[in-house]
Backbone:
Protein backbone atom coordinates (compact mmCIF):
# COMPACT_ATOMS: atom_id res chain seq x y z
CA UNK A 1 0.00 0.00 0.00
CA UNK A 2 1.35 3.41 -0.97
CA UNK A 3 2.30 5.86 1.71
CA UNK A 4 -0.26 8.61 2.32
CA UNK A 5 2.09 11.27 0.88
CA UNK A 6 2.45 9.26 -2.35
CA UNK A 7 -1.26 9.08 -3.01
CA UNK A 8 -2.77 11.63 -5.45
CA UNK A 9 -5.68 13.46 -3.94
CA UNK A 10 -8.44 14.72 -6.24
CA UNK A 11 -8.74 18.43 -5.54
CA UNK A 12 -12.04 20.02 -6.57
CA UNK A 13 -11.51 22.88 -9.03
CA UNK A 14 -14.48 24.67 -10.57
CA UNK A 15 -12.53 26.86 -13.00
CA UNK A 16 -8.73 26.50 -13.15
CA UNK A 17 -8.45 29.85 -14.97
CA UNK A 18 -10.42 31.82 -12.40
CA UNK A 19 -8.56 34.41 -10.31
CA UNK A 20 -9.34 33.00 -6.88
CA UNK A 21 -7.25 32.63 -3.74
CA UNK A 22 -7.83 28.86 -3.82
CA UNK A 23 -6.54 28.61 -7.40
CA UNK A 24 -3.45 30.64 -6.48
CA UNK A 25 -2.66 28.14 -3.71
CA UNK A 26 -3.13 25.23 -6.12
CA UNK A 27 -0.89 26.87 -8.73
CA UNK A 28 1.77 27.53 -6.11
CA UNK A 29 1.88 23.83 -5.25
CA UNK A 30 1.73 22.71 -8.88
CA UNK A 31 -1.70 21.13 -8.55
CA UNK A 32 -3.04 23.12 -11.51
CA UNK A 33 -0.97 24.76 -14.26
CA UNK A 34 -0.15 28.43 -14.34
CA UNK A 35 -2.83 30.60 -15.85
CA UNK A 36 -2.07 31.39 -19.52
CA UNK A 37 -1.32 35.04 -20.29
CA UNK A 38 -4.31 37.14 -21.26
CA UNK A 39 -4.55 37.85 -25.00
CA UNK A 40 -6.11 41.24 -24.30
CA UNK A 41 -2.83 43.24 -24.28
CA UNK A 42 -1.77 41.67 -27.58
CA UNK A 43 -5.16 42.39 -29.14
CA UNK A 44 -5.05 45.98 -27.93
CA UNK A 45 -1.52 46.35 -29.27
CA UNK A 46 -2.58 44.98 -32.67
CA UNK A 47 -5.53 47.40 -32.79
CA UNK A 48 -3.31 50.35 -31.92
CA UNK A 49 -0.77 49.30 -34.55
CA UNK A 50 -3.53 48.99 -37.14
CA UNK A 51 -4.78 52.47 -36.30
CA UNK A 52 -1.25 53.86 -36.48
CA UNK A 53 -0.65 52.36 -39.93
CA UNK A 54 -4.05 53.53 -41.15
CA UNK A 55 -3.23 57.06 -40.00
CA UNK A 56 0.22 57.01 -41.59
CA UNK A 57 -1.18 55.72 -44.89
CA UNK A 58 -4.32 57.87 -44.93
CA UNK A 59 -3.25 59.62 -48.13
CA UNK A 60 -2.16 56.48 -50.00
CA UNK A 61 -3.82 56.08 -53.38
CA UNK A 62 -5.20 59.62 -53.51
CA UNK A 63 -4.61 61.57 -56.70
CA UNK A 64 -3.54 65.21 -56.92
CA UNK A 65 -7.09 66.57 -56.95
CA UNK A 66 -7.99 64.55 -53.86
CA UNK A 67 -4.84 65.69 -52.09
CA UNK A 68 -5.88 69.31 -52.67
CA UNK A 69 -8.98 68.65 -50.57
CA UNK A 70 -6.74 68.03 -47.54
CA UNK A 71 -5.02 71.43 -47.61
CA UNK A 72 -6.84 72.64 -44.50
CA UNK A 73 -6.57 69.32 -42.69
CA UNK A 74 -2.98 68.19 -43.12
CA UNK A 75 0.45 69.60 -42.42
CA UNK A 76 1.66 71.45 -45.51
CA UNK A 77 5.07 69.76 -45.57
CA UNK A 78 3.48 66.32 -45.18
CA UNK A 79 0.97 67.06 -47.95
CA UNK A 80 3.62 68.41 -50.31
CA UNK A 81 5.65 65.23 -49.85
CA UNK A 82 2.68 63.21 -51.09
CA UNK A 83 2.14 65.64 -53.97
CA UNK A 84 5.73 65.17 -55.06
CA UNK A 85 5.34 61.41 -54.81
CA UNK A 86 2.20 61.47 -56.95
CA UNK A 87 3.84 63.69 -59.57
CA UNK A 88 6.80 61.33 -59.77
CA UNK A 89 4.46 58.36 -60.15
CA UNK A 90 2.50 60.12 -62.90
CA UNK A 91 5.70 61.06 -64.70
CA UNK A 92 6.91 57.46 -64.52
CA UNK A 93 3.58 56.20 -65.89
CA UNK A 94 3.66 58.67 -68.75
CA UNK A 95 7.14 57.50 -69.73
CA UNK A 96 6.09 53.84 -69.79
CA UNK A 97 2.61 54.33 -71.31
CA UNK A 98 3.60 53.20 -74.79
CA UNK A 99 0.38 51.35 -75.62
CA UNK A 100 -2.95 52.83 -74.55
CA UNK A 101 -5.29 50.74 -76.71
CA UNK A 102 -6.14 47.12 -77.48
CA UNK A 103 -4.18 45.61 -80.37
CA UNK A 104 -6.24 43.47 -82.78
CA UNK A 105 -3.87 40.78 -84.00
CA UNK A 106 -3.88 38.00 -86.58
CA UNK A 107 -2.30 34.56 -86.38
CA UNK A 108 0.85 35.51 -88.35
CA UNK A 109 1.39 38.41 -85.90
CA UNK A 110 0.81 36.37 -82.76
CA UNK A 111 4.39 35.30 -82.13
CA UNK A 112 5.80 38.79 -82.62
CA UNK A 113 3.06 40.79 -80.90
CA UNK A 114 2.51 38.43 -77.97
CA UNK A 115 5.18 35.81 -77.33
CA UNK A 116 8.20 37.92 -78.26
CA UNK A 117 6.72 41.11 -76.83
CA UNK A 118 6.33 39.41 -73.45
CA UNK A 119 10.09 38.82 -73.36
CA UNK A 120 10.86 42.52 -73.34
CA UNK A 121 11.99 43.85 -69.98
CA UNK A 122 8.96 45.50 -68.45
CA UNK A 123 10.79 46.86 -65.42
CA UNK A 124 14.29 48.09 -65.97
CA UNK A 125 16.89 45.99 -64.24
CA UNK A 126 14.56 43.20 -63.14
CA UNK A 127 15.22 40.91 -66.07
CA UNK A 128 11.54 39.95 -66.06
CA UNK A 129 9.43 40.11 -69.17
CA UNK A 130 6.53 42.49 -69.54
CA UNK A 131 3.13 40.77 -69.20
CA UNK A 132 1.01 40.70 -72.36
CA UNK A 133 -2.73 40.08 -72.03
CA UNK A 134 -4.65 38.33 -74.79
CA UNK A 135 -8.42 38.13 -75.14
CA UNK A 136 -9.46 35.15 -77.26
CA UNK A 137 -12.87 36.42 -78.33
CA UNK A 138 -16.01 34.65 -79.39
CA UNK A 139 -16.69 34.54 -83.12
CA UNK A 140 -20.38 35.23 -82.52
CA UNK A 141 -22.07 38.41 -81.41
CA UNK A 142 -24.27 36.64 -78.88
CA UNK A 143 -21.60 35.79 -76.30
CA UNK A 144 -22.28 38.33 -73.56
CA UNK A 145 -19.17 37.47 -71.53
CA UNK A 146 -17.02 38.07 -74.59
CA UNK A 147 -18.53 41.51 -75.09
CA UNK A 148 -18.03 42.34 -71.40
CA UNK A 149 -14.37 41.34 -71.50
CA UNK A 150 -13.72 43.28 -74.70
CA UNK A 151 -15.07 46.43 -73.06
CA UNK A 152 -13.00 45.85 -69.92
CA UNK A 153 -9.87 45.30 -72.02
CA UNK A 154 -10.47 48.63 -73.77
CA UNK A 155 -10.84 50.43 -70.45
CA UNK A 156 -7.81 48.68 -68.96
CA UNK A 157 -5.67 49.47 -72.00
CA UNK A 158 -6.54 53.15 -71.61
CA UNK A 159 -5.82 53.25 -67.88
CA UNK A 160 -2.76 51.02 -67.91
CA UNK A 161 -0.90 52.30 -70.93
CA UNK A 162 2.28 50.52 -69.86
CA UNK A 163 0.60 47.12 -70.24
CA UNK A 164 -0.01 45.52 -73.63
CA UNK A 165 -3.51 44.22 -74.32
CA UNK A 166 -4.33 42.21 -77.46
CA UNK A 167 -7.44 40.56 -78.83
CA UNK A 168 -8.08 37.92 -81.45
CA UNK A 169 -10.88 35.61 -82.46
CA UNK A 170 -10.34 32.32 -80.69
CA UNK A 171 -11.12 30.15 -83.72
CA UNK A 172 -8.50 32.04 -85.72
CA UNK A 173 -5.86 31.67 -83.02
CA UNK A 174 -6.54 27.98 -82.41
CA UNK A 175 -8.36 26.01 -85.08
CA UNK A 176 -11.45 24.34 -83.69
CA UNK A 177 -11.29 26.20 -80.36
CA UNK A 178 -14.64 25.55 -78.62
CA UNK A 179 -17.04 28.46 -78.55
CA UNK A 180 -18.08 27.40 -75.04
CA UNK A 181 -14.57 28.31 -73.84
CA UNK A 182 -14.87 31.91 -74.99
CA UNK A 183 -13.76 34.32 -73.90
CA UNK A 184 -10.38 33.04 -72.75
CA UNK A 185 -7.77 35.26 -71.14
CA UNK A 186 -4.13 34.37 -71.71
CA UNK A 187 -1.32 36.19 -69.94
CA UNK A 188 2.18 35.79 -71.34
CA UNK A 189 5.41 36.69 -69.60
CA UNK A 190 8.96 35.99 -70.71
CA UNK A 191 7.58 33.99 -73.62
CA UNK A 192 5.43 31.66 -71.52
CA UNK A 193 1.77 31.53 -70.54
CA UNK A 194 1.68 32.40 -66.84
CA UNK A 195 -2.09 32.69 -66.44
CA UNK A 196 -5.07 31.25 -68.26
CA UNK A 197 -8.72 31.97 -67.52
CA UNK A 198 -11.31 30.04 -69.53
CA UNK A 199 -14.60 31.98 -69.62
CA UNK A 200 -15.38 34.53 -66.93
CA UNK A 201 -17.11 32.08 -64.60
CA UNK A 202 -14.38 32.32 -61.95
CA UNK A 203 -13.96 36.10 -62.17
CA UNK A 204 -17.52 37.34 -61.82
CA UNK A 205 -19.10 36.21 -65.08
CA UNK A 206 -20.98 39.00 -66.84
CA UNK A 207 -20.53 41.05 -63.64
CA UNK A 208 -16.75 41.06 -64.01
CA UNK A 209 -15.47 44.56 -63.33
CA UNK A 210 -12.30 46.61 -63.40
CA UNK A 211 -11.70 45.49 -59.82
CA UNK A 212 -11.22 41.98 -61.19
CA UNK A 213 -8.93 43.28 -63.93
CA UNK A 214 -6.91 45.13 -61.29
CA UNK A 215 -6.58 41.95 -59.23
CA UNK A 216 -5.36 40.05 -62.29
CA UNK A 217 -2.83 42.74 -63.14
CA UNK A 218 -1.48 42.64 -59.59
CA UNK A 219 -1.41 38.83 -59.52
CA UNK A 220 0.80 38.54 -62.60
CA UNK A 221 3.04 41.43 -61.59
CA UNK A 222 1.93 43.86 -64.28
CA UNK A 223 1.28 46.54 -61.65
CA UNK A 224 2.07 46.83 -57.96
CA UNK A 225 -0.51 46.16 -55.28
CA UNK A 226 -0.06 49.73 -54.02
CA UNK A 227 -0.46 51.27 -57.48
CA UNK A 228 -2.47 54.45 -57.00
CA UNK A 229 -4.95 53.43 -59.72
CA UNK A 230 -5.60 50.12 -57.98
CA UNK A 231 -5.91 51.74 -54.55
CA UNK A 232 -8.25 54.45 -55.79
CA UNK A 233 -10.65 51.99 -57.39
CA UNK A 234 -10.65 49.82 -54.27
CA UNK A 235 -11.37 52.82 -52.09
CA UNK A 236 -14.15 54.03 -54.39
CA UNK A 237 -15.71 50.56 -54.30
CA UNK A 238 -15.49 50.44 -50.50
CA UNK A 239 -17.08 53.90 -50.24
CA UNK A 240 -19.87 52.87 -52.60
CA UNK A 241 -20.51 49.72 -50.57
CA UNK A 242 -20.66 51.73 -47.34
CA UNK A 243 -23.14 54.13 -48.93
CA UNK A 244 -25.24 51.20 -50.13
CA UNK A 245 -25.30 49.67 -46.65
CA UNK A 246 -26.16 53.01 -45.04
CA UNK A 247 -28.93 53.60 -47.58
CA UNK A 248 -30.34 50.16 -46.83
CA UNK A 249 -30.16 50.78 -43.10
CA UNK A 250 -31.87 54.16 -43.43
CA UNK A 251 -34.58 52.62 -45.60
CA UNK A 252 -35.12 49.89 -43.03
CA UNK A 253 -35.41 52.47 -40.23
CA UNK A 254 -37.87 54.53 -42.27
CA UNK A 255 -39.96 51.45 -43.06
CA UNK A 256 -40.00 50.50 -39.38
CA UNK A 257 -41.13 54.00 -38.41
CA UNK A 258 -43.85 53.95 -41.06
CA UNK A 259 -45.12 50.62 -39.72
CA UNK A 260 -45.19 51.96 -36.17
CA UNK A 261 -46.99 55.08 -37.34
CA UNK A 262 -49.58 52.98 -39.16
CA UNK A 263 -50.02 50.80 -36.07
CA UNK A 264 -50.57 53.93 -33.96
CA UNK A 265 -53.15 55.18 -36.45
CA UNK A 266 -54.94 51.83 -36.29
CA UNK A 267 -54.99 52.03 -32.50
CA UNK A 268 -56.48 55.53 -32.69
CA UNK A 269 -59.30 54.21 -34.85
CA UNK A 270 -60.41 52.02 -31.96
CA UNK A 271 -60.55 54.90 -29.46
Residues:
Amino acid sequence: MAAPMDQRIAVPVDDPNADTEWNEILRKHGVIPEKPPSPTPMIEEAILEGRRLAHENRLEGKDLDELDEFEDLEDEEFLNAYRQQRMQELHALQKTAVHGSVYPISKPEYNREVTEASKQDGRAGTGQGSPVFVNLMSSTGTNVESRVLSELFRQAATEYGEVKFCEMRADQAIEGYPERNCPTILVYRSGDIVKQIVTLAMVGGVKMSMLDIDALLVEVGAVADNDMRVLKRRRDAEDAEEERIMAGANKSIKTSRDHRRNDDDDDDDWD
Summary: The first helix runs from residue 21 to 28. Residues 68-97 form one domain. Strands lie at 102-104, 132-137, 164-169, 184-189, 192-198. The radius of gyration is 31 Å.
